[in-house]
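SEQUENCE-TO-STRUCTURE ENTRY
===========================
What this section holds: a protein sequence and its matching fold, both as plain text.
Question of interest: how does this chain fold, as expressed in backbone structure tokens?
***
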Amino acid sequence: MFIVTAKEMYDIDHYTISEIGLEGKLLMENAGRAIYEKVVRKVGEKDRIKVIVGSGNNGGDGFVIARTLQNNQYHVSVVQVVPDEKIKGDALVHKQIYIKFGGKVNTVSNHADLSKHLADTDVIIDAMFGIGITGKLREPFATMVSMINNIEAYVISVDIPSGLPADEGLKDFVSVQADYTVVIEAPKISAFLQHTSSYYGEWEVVTIGIPLQAFQTNVRRVLSTERAFVESLPKRKPFAHKGNHGRGLVVGGNSEMPGAVGMSAKAALRAGAGLISIGTSKDVASIIASQCFEATFQFLAETNGFLTDETEIPFHNFDAIAIGVGLGREPQTRKLVKRIVHDAQCPLIIDADGLYHIKNELSVLKQRTKPTILTPHPGEMARLLDITVSDLLVNPFRYSLEFAREYNVFLVLKGKYTIITAPTKEQAVNITGNPGLAKGGSGDVLTGISLAMVMQGQPVFRAICNACYLHGRSADLQVNDSNSERDLMATDVIDGISKVYRTYTFR
């Protein structure tokens, strides 16, 4: 499933109409009918339904929805919030058809008139404004929207809640607060932003006949799905041995945080790595050895409980390396991080304190010839960019893409909706997971899973997408089966990995 900006969606529509030859009137009919099929699952036969229409395609969809509801004997009427001359083109065609079907259109010009028509309404279908809105809604529409939000009715939005920006970058807006949104063809970027996603309520996508090549030509941003995970994860060969599934190294741990590196190693093994070594001090190794019997150890020098750059690491022995979990922020450790980033000739994952140490060494990343994966949470990402977290979260797709391209890295910006970005411009959003992951150690587990995945013979971008999917899906299954979002711990997520694999009958 693709994720689009407003411009990309317009380009896709234009391609479909001008190059493929599907008329706009037909696409509007398809949209209205597809949305109707979703609407009737949410409304009752006795519900009083008002379809609020504006200009443009969104309003045209509203006329089709209203006509289809009326023709199936639902109690529905249309309230038009723009003058008649604003209804043009395909929308006007469908307005006229609706009227010929016996439908009535009530035109209003202010919120007071709208309020009269919405009295005793059970369901509001919001088809006022679509993705064409730029900036904050003007009056009288801003007040109309605020009024709708204060009415005791179930609100269904068509494609996008009216007034909500489709794209990132806008903080100041007035939007319908939908209970349910029926998205046409592809979710818009705002469905995945912290400050806008809640306005959609529950949402589902309907298709209306847009050809696949229209998306493939215009969009490089996708939703990471169960289907992609199942179809792309490599199957195990009957005569495989442990070396076929990757030799990984996890570098981290200090006397104050010994457990993190152990969780990463265990997660990597549970996710499918063939061999995992833990690069840490002898003291940390003695603490975590009983937690992960299957891992081996690469003992590194330390001073006062923190690792130092005084031990030779046989980089050639490993197919991928992860560094940073539980590492600590002591200055003496920075040289170790920089050396590994510079010398490791294999895929490298940098997380947690590793990100702290490379803040002033980002130029080293550009020199690497093997894939580099950074896995920051928003606070860590904002620090790398020297911006505020709030600024980052308003533009996470843009900032992620710019950073990935500039430093030639794969970037995993963690959150409720994790954004995975490749230096070649591909982006994916992972939506698995739940609030139970908002707990210490969850990121360490993702690092371990990611380490395993990049060693399983997949393209790096696909491997990272699969790691994020597996991590979140494990948390979801644990909450469904044995935990709650309150008591879920990182070690529970490790245990849930096997449930995910069993769910999809992997061997």
